[in-house]
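Task 17 of the worksheet. Students: predict the tertiary structure of the chain below and write it out as structure tokens. Keep your answer in the requested format; marks are given for formatting as well as content.
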Amino acid sequence: MALALSGSYWLWSPTLPATESVAVSIALGGGDQSGYQRADQPRLFEFPLDHGPHPLFRNEWWYVTGNLTDVTGRQFGYQLTLFRTALAPSAPVADSAWRTNQMYMGHFALTDVGDNRHDHFERFSRGAVELAGAQAEPFRVWLENWQLIGGQSEIFPMRIHAQENGIAIDLTLNAGKPIVLQGDRGWSQKSAEPGNASYYYSYTRLPTAGTITVAEQTFRVHGHSWLDREWSTSALGPEQSGWDWFALQLSDGRDLMFYRLRRKDGGTDSFSKGMLVSADGQTRPLRRDEVVLHPLGEWRSARTGDRYPAGWRLQIPAEQLDLTVTPKIADQEMRLTIRYWEGAVTVNGRSGQQIIDGEGYLEMTRYADPP
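Model answer:
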């Protein structure tokens, strides 16, 4: 789960001030969808081909997050997301190496828990003349020097690199658990309208090691990452306003993904769903009515005035799970062209009579409509 801009907006948008943004409901709903492929039914996945781009769909992303620690116990969270958007359903006449119908956007963020700091950056480029692009074999997705790089025929080990304003990550992600096909065999329906869905798979626990550089100080770190992959043409329906997305790695070896789709009337949409992944990689789908979510308090951004829940209580009664999800630092707001909250979280609670903890990432799209 994640965010992508509508292609037409990219043609003219300058960098927006912090008080303005594009609504995610506009970016992932509506618009002219004629000519694009739609995620209208389950399909067979083909790897390594499906690790690469799907240019006949309008939106696509490679979404990596992780929690890392250095030898002294200093904690970091990171996000690197590369988005592809088609501006038109077919490629233009190839009369120039610069001409393309594919645009790329990147979001890069680092949470330095010890310094109570969250830095975030954004880039745009066209998918031409090697400025940005994606390929399956050998696996590579890039936007200038922000890159995800795999092997000749395998996606792992994957090298991740991004650098901006004195902040850099250089990480290697190794295979952990097997691939998880989200939803119905990888078909994740988001609303009742046919085609409002994505093809969606995840790698939920990837052992990670490498370096993080902050203000010319380099930290050797290790931990775990999470990779989400989605492509679609449309997702949200007109009655939906956004989502709250949880990607949690628990201390008993289980991983939990759940997204709550929010309705404009304040309710939870029936297409909300998730997946519980056991320590050995077995999966159990989660319906909306199996997960109970309660917001805990409120955090208000001093920069934008936006309000978000300050934490969550997440319960799965059938699994005897009762969890509290707390941001590692309060301000992890992504003040970019699409504004949202995304950051590292800790998990505490119980699994039956056993104490359990963990960490992960939480994404919350804006709770108020933009200007």
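Marker's comment: The two ends are 24 Å apart (CA to CA). The helical segments are 7-10, 24-27.
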